[in-house]
């Protein structure tokens, strides 16, 4: 997999500077390689399966309504009379979503793509310096019923 060579340009003062256009071209080539990976193909397959699943669509609508109600209760804190019931409803629907096979597989595929992207980012950063920090998505959740913006179903949960 040859990537475009990023060679330094020498300015009028003889100091080399990075050719930004070449660097961006390499970045796009790397993105193309990633998009052609089995992990991305698996992710896109399960994303489509989730988006077409009628049960996921129904639960996503219920989840959006429950989340909206919980947000209203949350404004007043745990002392709101419906706070705990609203919170329990959101968690219950999340658990139902998590039991659907397509959702399980989508979340696994999403995690695999996320891990691949993190590994690539880390390799790039470490090739520059061992002390560069690379942000990670550890601790963050997303996708279906993961507490983040649910991308399942037609209306989404966010």
TrEMBL record:
Source species of the chain: Paenibacillus glycanilyticus
Coiled coil: 49-103
Full protein name: YlbF family regulator
Keywords: Coiled coil
PANTHER family: REGULATORY PROTEIN YLBF, REGULATORY PROTEIN YLBF-RELATED
Superkingdom in the source lineage: Bacteria
Sequence segments annotated as region (Disordered): 138-158
InterPro entries: Bact_com_dev_regulator, Com_YlbF, YheA/YmcA-like_dom_sf
Compositional bias segments (type: Gly residues): 140-158
Gene3D superfamilies referenced in this protein's UniProt entry, alphabetically: YheA/YmcA-like (1.20.1500.10)
Any Pfam family the entry gives: Com_YlbF
């Amino acid at each position: 997999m040859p990537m475009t060579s990023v060679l330094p340009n020498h300015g009028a003062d003889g100091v080399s500077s990075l050719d930004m256009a070449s660097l961006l071209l390499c970045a796009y080539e790397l993105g193309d390689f990633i998009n052609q990976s089995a992990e991305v193909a698996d992710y896109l397959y399960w994303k489509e399966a989730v988006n077409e699943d009628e049960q996921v669509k129904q639960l996503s609508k219920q989840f959006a309504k429950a989340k909206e109600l919980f947000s209203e209760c949350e404004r007043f804190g745990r002392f709101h009379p419906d706070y705990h019931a609203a919170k329990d409803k959101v968690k219950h629907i999340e658990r139902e979503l998590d039991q659907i096979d397509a959702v399980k597989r989508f979340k696994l595929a999403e995690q695999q793509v996320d891990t691949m992207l993190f590994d690539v980012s880390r390799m790039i950063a470490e090739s520059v310096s061992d002390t560069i920090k690379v942000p990670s998505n550890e601790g963050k959740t997303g996708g279906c019923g993961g507490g983040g913006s649910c991308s399942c179903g037609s209306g989404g949960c966010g």
